[in-house]
Amino acid sequence: MRDRIADGARPLVSYRVIVELISATTTKTGLTVRCELDTGLYPRGIVVSDAEIAALNIKRAEFHGEWNYTISPNTYPPNCAFIS
User: Fold this and answer.
1) Structure confidence at residue 3 (pLDDT)
2) Domain that holds residue 35
3) How many domains are contained in the chain?
């Protein structure tokens, strides 16, 4: 059975459609989104250690904290050295 698409909805058939969908996002409070496709090539297989993750200043959101979070700079006293 073929899935039905809601009126006005477009299937995600290309990167262009996805970028257009994301960039059309707005909120009642006036947030708008700028979106573009990054076609850069990036290295694969980079491993981030548990210690490196633990050193990040991450605050997870109450709603889906595994997806929604804020990463802030770490603040260390001037006489403190951070060694990784």
Assistant:
1) 47
2) 15-72
3) 1
CA proximity to 19, closest of 27, 10, 30, 28: 10
Bridging pattern class, strands 57-60 and 69-72: antiparallel
C-alpha distance from residue 2 to each of 8, 61, 64 (Å): 17, 36, 30
Return the pLDDT at 2. Answer: 46
Helices (H), 1-84: 15-23, 50-54
Domain membership of residue 78 (yes or no) is no
Cβ atoms of 71 and 58 closer than 8 Å: yes
In a domain, 79, yes or no: no
User: Which tens digit of pLDDT belongs to each residue from 29-54?
Assistant: 988 888 888 999 999 999 999 999 88
